[in-house]
Amino acid sequence: MKTFFRFIFSKLFLKQLILAIVIALTLFGATVLGIRIFTRHGQAIQVPDIKGYNEAQVGRIISDNDLRFEIIDSIFTQEVLPGTVFDQIPAAGSFVKKNRKIFLIMNAKHNERVAVPSLKNVSLRQAQVLISQSGLKIGKVAYITSEYKDLVLKQMMSDSIIPPGTMVPKWSEIDLQVGRGLSSRKTDVPYLRGLYWIDAKEKILSINLNEGSIIKDETISDDSPIDSAIVWKQYPQPNVHANVGKSVDMWLTMDTAIVYAADSTLRSR
Predict the structure, then answer these.
(1) Does any domain span residue 6?
(2) Quick one: pLDDT at residue 126?
């Protein structure tokens, strides 16, 4: 035991202890320095704000700041110009290491176009689902007197009827005219035979009746100007008392002889 204590307090032990401490401190300092060099401690770069810049401008700005970039997604929005940066990750003002990659979300140069679904004669609830699934939005919903309550009667855009299948920009608004049920008020169904379809349509709408089914005969092709087609048959018949909002079906033709024959048959009764 005495020998052990003599060794502990000997000059040789003290020299070895001091040497071990010096070596340990040296290794610790070298390790810390190496980590700082490897991680570029204290050399952070502030991320520039590149929102609203196009890809060429972004390339110059990113390069000047010793960074890199990658486009990860694109959307269409009116918040920034087409073909420019809409969002960035990390956000502007963040501090990152040199050569860090900045991820970008770009605003598409052209809006995606989608087909308008067929909405006529479906319920309002179903129309809402179809519009959403098609990447569109519901615009104005106008309720008009009709025998078909909560049924879509017309689909429109910019105050004009828009046919199903029409390609429009994504997220466009589709306006709807929806039935709200019949009125208790009555009106006389007008005589429509011999009128051009466009005139017959205006006539029934002027007395708060609705256009019902349109049946075209073989004289009307897909390319025929339907405004020039003539009504040769209708339902309900003329002079029938009908509730306001009632739909009137019309049979159309381009052959005036058919119209005259129908009139002759009616007069002979």
Answers:
(1) no
(2) 95
